[in-house]
Design goal:
There is one protein chain. This protein is 24% helix and 19% strand. The strands form five sheets. Strands 1, 2, 3, 4, 7, 8, 10, 11 and 15 form a nine-stranded mixed beta sheet that branches. A two-stranded antiparallel sheet has the order 5-6. The protein has a two-stranded parallel ribbon with strand order 9-14. β2 and β3 form a beta hairpin. The protein has 365 residues and is α/β, with parallel strands linked by helices.
Length: 365
């Protein structure tokens, strides 16, 4: 019951955010400043803006964003453009569960309203962040023309968003993303932004081989038995995600492995498809009505045109851009084993030995 209450009330929060947006038909940029949110006591102690940016000449593609100004020095602090993976997962996940200024504290007693509290570790303490729903059809973003979205189109739209969207292009700019082939969205536009400093990628899918490390990771963490792991190795011969349909034993073993739920517990309540009204929107979209908010819409008509982004890392590092590649120790969709493998393939010199690092005296990684 408590989890259902959390689910319902979070969707009410999303609805409130959406109702604060001005109707955006035929506009390049429209926005509203959000002063308060249900579940949070008093006015917000940071500046939050939500809105739409039209990213094509006819303004048929409207990208939805959550913008939080730096709580330190927004005129000089870096600007981070954050795009959540998938493709098709809303940036709201990062805003409320990962790097944003708020998160939920859920009281377990039935009927209690979930409380929003400040995130003391929010990245907005030191930077302004633009959380953008991309590609088209993700979250509240929408398009009115019948067209498919591709890697390169998303690159162009992200670049247009930065040019037309809100604020601080004179500040140092970083781009961040997690999961799905993160680097491809950087390739088309970062090199033309003279303020661009670098990029941050979490559990980034980089090469087609990365996902094959999920099964060794699951075995190493005790999620599957030795017997199943050994059978998978024999029957699939190390190729777990392009399985030959005639390989019955591999298919059977992989189905047994697939019973593991790979998503983080904190995101369960956002995975349901729950219909919501969106009063700021007019009409419907060929990508699906935004009246139905879905955390991760994997049915988007999205075409992957770049399958391997390894060379982008090589090119950008050669040009001197900074990068931070990090992995969650429980991330199984793109596990750290795959990330380690392609980083090793860069064949760069090691300037510091593998070691733990600490925060306030405690080992953090």
């Amino acid at each position: 019951m408590a989890s259902k209450m959390v689910h319902l009330l979070c969707l009410l929060l999303i609805l409130l955010l959406s109702t604060l947006i001005i109707a955006c038909s035929n506009l390049v940029l429209c926005h509203s400043v959000v002063k308060s949110l249900p579940g949070f006591e008093g006015p917000l102690p940071f500046e939050l803006e939500t809105g739409y940016v039209g990213v094509d000449e006819s303004k048929d593609v409207q990208l939805f964003y959550y913008f939080v100004k730096s709580e330190s020095n927004p005129k000089e602090d870096p600007l981070l453009l954050w795009l959540t993976g998938g493709p098709g997962c809303s940036a709201f996940s990062a805003f409320i569960y990962e790097i944003g200024p708020l998160y939920f504290v859920v009281k377990q007693r039935e009927g209690n309203f979930p409380t929003l509290v400040l995130n003391p570790n929010s990245w907005t303490k030191v930077s302004s962040i633009l959380f953008v729903d991309l590609p088209v059809g993700t979250g509240f973003s929408y398009g009115t023309l019948a067209s498919k979205s591709t890697n390169l189109q998303s690159c162009d739209q992200a670049y247009e968003f930065l040019k037309k969207g809100p604020y601080f292009l004179s500040n140092p700019i970083y781009v961040g993303r997690d999961s799905y082939i993160s680097i491809t969205l950087l390739s088309a536009f970062v090199v033309v932004l003279k303020w661009f400093q670098g990029y941050l990628l979490g559990n980034p899918l980089t090469t087609p081989n990365d996902s094959n490390y999920a099964i060794p990771f699951a075995h190493g963490t005790g999620l599957i038995s030795n017997e199943l792991y050994e059978s998978l190795q024999r029957s699939c011969q190390g190729e777990y995600f392009n399985i030959d349909p005639s390989n019955a034993q591999c298919l059977q073993d992989y189905q047994a492995y697939s019973r593991i739920n790979a998503y983080r517990l904190s995101h369960f309540w956002l995975n349901d498809e729950s219909p919501r009204s969106a009063p700021h929107s007019k009409g419907t979209s060929d990508f699906g009505s935004i009246e139905e908010w879905i955390r991760c819409d994997y049915e988007l008509p999205y075409t992957t045109t770049i399958m391997d982004s390894f060379q982008y890392h090589v090119n950008l590092s050669t040009k001197g851009y900074k990068s931070l590649i990090y992995s969650g120790d429980h991330g199984m969709i793109v596990p750290f084993l795959g990330t380690q493998a392609w980083i090793s393939a860069l064949n760069y010199s090691i300037v510091d030995d593998w070691h733990s690092w600490r925060v306030q005296g405690q080992v953090a990684g």
